[in-house]
Task: inverse folding
């Protein structure tokens, strides 16, 4: 019997702007991870209309509404541990030694992923206001049989 794929939508740096294109791209997610800089108390409730949400505080999330969100979270899917924080430069552990399969972060607005020491490092970029010449983007990680399959999604927007 084939294992069911589990889809994690990954979004970051919305800065108070939750685009319709982002919501559409996240449809079908079983879980959504927001890697900080939500920028508004309305972002997570909107995302919860699609799937359960795990969110961390980013450097712009300083208002009282953000107090319940922690700076770091751990997501477990199948046997895979995923560490979530906003700024990768604030990583406070050695992910491979700690048994993590992935680290999700945001902050830079630069979408990318790579594997180092067997750990997937995943930054979905920014789904909010565009900065510099970087695209508006988000990502998905499909977990199947303990394997993490990353995908970056560029949002088709006009601004």
Result:
């Amino acid at each position: 019997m084939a294992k069911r794929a589990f889809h994690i939508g990954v979004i970051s740096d919305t800065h108070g702007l939750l685009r319709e294109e982002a919501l559409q791209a996240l449809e079908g997610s079983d879980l959504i991870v927001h890697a900080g800089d939500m920028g508004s108390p309305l972002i997570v409730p909107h995302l919860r209309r699609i799937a359960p949400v795990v969110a961390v505080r980013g450097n712009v999330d300083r208002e009282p509404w953000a107090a319940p969100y922690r700076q770091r979270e751990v997501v477990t899917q199948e046997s895979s541990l995923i560490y979530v924080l906003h700024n990768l430069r604030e990583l406070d552990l050695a992910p491979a030694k700690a048994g993590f399969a992935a680290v999700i972060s945001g902050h830079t607005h630069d979408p990318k992923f790579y594997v180092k020491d067997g750990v997937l490092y995943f930054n979905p970029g920014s789904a909010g206001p565009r900065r510099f010449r970087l695209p508006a983007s988000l990502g998905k990680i499909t977990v199947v049989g303990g394997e993490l399959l990353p995908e970056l999604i560029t949002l088709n927007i006009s601004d």
